[in-house]
Amino acid sequence: MTDFLAAIYYERWILNALIVLPLVGVVPLLLAPAARARQVALVVTILEFVLSLGLWWAFDSSTAVMQFAVEGAWLPQWGIKYALGLDGISLFMVLLTTGIMPLAVLSSFHYITHRERLYYGLLLTLLTGMLGVFLSLDMFLFYVFWEVMLIPMYFIIGIWGGKNRIYAAVKFFIYTMAGSLLMLVAILVMMFEGYRIGGVPSFAYDAFLTYAPQMGALAPWLFLAFALAFAIKVPMFPFHTWLPDAHVEAPTAGSVILASVLLKMGTYGFLRFAVPFFPDVALSPLVTSIVVGSAVIGIVYGALVALVQPDVKKLVAYSSVSHLGFVMLGIWAATLQSVQGALLIMIGHGLSTGALFLLIGMLYERRHTREIAAFGGLARVIPIFSLLLVVTSLASIGLPGLNGFVGEFLVLLGSFERFPWATGIATTGVIFAAAYLLWALQRIIFNRLDQPENAHLADLSARELWVVLPLVAGMVWLGLYPRPVLDRMDAAARHYIQLVQPGKDTAPATALNRSGAERPQ
Amino acid sequence: MIAFDPSTPVGTALALLPEVVLSAASLVVLLVVAWKHQGPADSRRAGWLALASLGLSALALGWVSANAPEEPGLGLMVALDGFRYFGSALILLVSAGAVLASLGYLERERLVAPEYYVLVLLAVVGLLFMVNAQDLIVLFLGLETMSVAVYVLAGYNRASTYSAEAGLKYFLIGAFASGFLLYGIALVYGASGTTNIVQIGAQFGEAELSLMAKLGLGMLVIGFGFKVAAVPFHMWAPDVYDGAPTPVAGFMATAVKTAGFIALGRVLYTSFQGSVLVWQPIIFALAAASMVLGNLVALAQKSLKRMLAYSSVAHAGYLLCALWPGTPLGMSSLTFYLVGYGVTSIAAFALLGAVGRDGERDVTLAEIAGLAETRPWMAFALSVCMLSLLGFPGTIGFIGKWYILSALVASKFPLLAVLVVLTSLVSAGYYMPVLMTMYMRPSRAPMVFFDRGLAGSARLAVAVGVLAVLALGVWPGPVLQLANHAAESLAQTAGQIVARR
Hints:
Radius of gyration of chain B: 21 Å
Oligomer: heterodimer
Structural class of chain A: mainly alpha
Shape of chain B: globular
Largest sheet of chain A: 2 strands, antiparallel
Strand content of chain A: under 5%
Largest interface: A-B, 29 and 33 residues
Helix content of chain B: over 70%
Mean pLDDT of chain A: 88
Strand order of the largest sheet of chain A: 1-2
């Protein structure tokens, strides 16, 4: 496989192709008859996924430098480049994104019945925007993708969403934009400071990394601007209030993309930009206690609120707040296990929460309600659906053998030495997760079949199975054999720790990560 | 190449070739419409003739910029620098857009009096003089020529009392503003002994300004403040934009504003370049007030035209921010932003003219509900315009705002930059509902007013504008270079003054 990829010069064109292909795909989409739009979108997203799969083999897991890098002049007057690259952190974000998209398209086949061309066109544009965020190595380019991505999501929620869709769309838009505009000023200030020190205007990520330690008294403010943008996106408590609205109102595919990919951009931003730029500020006692505090509050609060939701989609939305609290905890603990765990949760949450939203969407298409109280005893009527829902929920809870367990275990393990108290409290989040999901399962698919409407539901069609099964397979694989994944993120995680805590020894690895320990530093 | 000597009378005439050509052409058009002013066909003919005149003037402008001497000397009444060419070209461009938008609009609103186009041409002549003026008297003459024509244009719809109100209001306020400007010119003349913009700069130098000079500067800024609709001199703008025929409102928001800023920039950068610290606080106050008030009040507007009027006040604030640093970078960002704002606004007003209803003066937000389903391309075009005004990445508005922010940050004044982004966030609160209403709200039947769509000529203006907004949003390089060149040429003049002192 590797030889084949090298033979076609895969590493030279792949990132450009990934960015451009969805946009090119919009053209046949607009030319095709409306009824065919979904097929075109499916073909394009599958093609995109197949292309991106090569990254898995072509990726060199022994190094933390940016791979597959491409670069071109864009606005030379301002030192702005078109620069893309990928490391062990972005690799999985890219694969997750390209992998989720065909499923999101497939899940929309029956759900979206009007203005299909616009819908699928927006999905493809969104795909380019999301990949751009994960791949950009130029801060200007990053900002452009970060913002451009907003518009498709705004329309997807606002046009095809539920009853309160406009409110949710506007809230989503305003929250995200409020955060990112200050980041824009921070990027500019950093660029000009770098220009003053280095004499060359540059928005390159590396240049920012080089000059960031010399920001002096500006550093706390700059960190604040970056952190606010990312904290809203994560979302961290108390900036999470847009999330339940957006999730509940969005159409199924919108919720899936939101949960699987968009939320990861916040944590990705912390891992890639905010913390490595300003480790001294970020890991100072004050900021640490604020971030870790609100992460732990998010974990417990999200879980408790999820417990009492009557709407199952809202339940999953709040569970996201809880899960991403673990990621934040792991990022701030900055040990090898905790960072790898955080990355694993980012991937695993994408799979399991994505699958949960898809399954809920399927249920909604049958019953046109998401009230937990409206269901009961579904296991007897639709056994395949129920089985998949159980497996997915268990993965989300963190049952050993499924993906959720590995990530949360690593985060808790890695964070314990630095924040014993916070980690102790966070552990209760796992218990609460079991409580809210198992209780919900009990009420939805077990209990008595007391509603006549539920007695004649159709079980999953072949198409719907195709939507969910790949995700379930991924959950099992990550749960049983995460080593190939850990191997590939190992160097990047170490690099992150080196950046934020220079001189810290990252050598001792867990049993899960043996191959990492064998490698010379 | 025949370089001309602008210090001779013939040379001066050649230096003013674009203005001369346009004046002559407007007289020709006037003559034509004196014969033929009956039906819609005559009106259309006048419109195309006006467009051709603008094109001729643009050709003349190209000739002047190619053949002007490198170092024209400093005592001239007419500027021969990139700054003027840039401003003139932009004014001709957006005026052409306004004419194109008018062609269908006038017919539909039954305003078929072809003298309209003559007035537009005369107004453009005035604007070109404002931009080329290197003497305060020339500047004032240009401003008055423009104003008189626009007074009439604003009140052009005789059947509408609102249009009459707009004309009268613009006339009264305009006369008031002209008074300030003239008084300012007189005081500056009293303090410096000259009306030549460059020589004033040489006279004042770096020295502390006398009280008289300071008063003159203040009066000048107030006069310009009225013309560009900066807070607190903006009160006329919403009523006038609202009452005036929509293409005229677009013309005022783009061409007139451009000329005002180019002239203000030239005066501040050359005449008062040594007293940056005197005018910076004034500009800061005006900019901050315009951004905050313009954006906040726009939030409350139901009528799209009024909303755009307040948005144009807010944009005057952003442009003043670009003026604030007093650096070539700031000037370059000002000229670039003018292009972005001009192209976007003229397309937006052309679109609004098309969705307007006969006799009704307002297009309210509720009336464009569901436009995306009935007229997808119009909705798309209006969305692009709104996003560009908001400063969203991918549009020229973003590059412009980014450039202004750069200039502010480079001048070590991030406070104003933060104010720009915060007020931009507020502006999302009124630009985004336009998109929302068009795409997410169900359409209200019956939508007779939209079924006509855009007239072909207006469609051309909108298509060119929207394509430019998108293309320059991704690839602003060429315009950026022109803007840089314009700012540098102005800085060069300023440098020559310093060298002479």
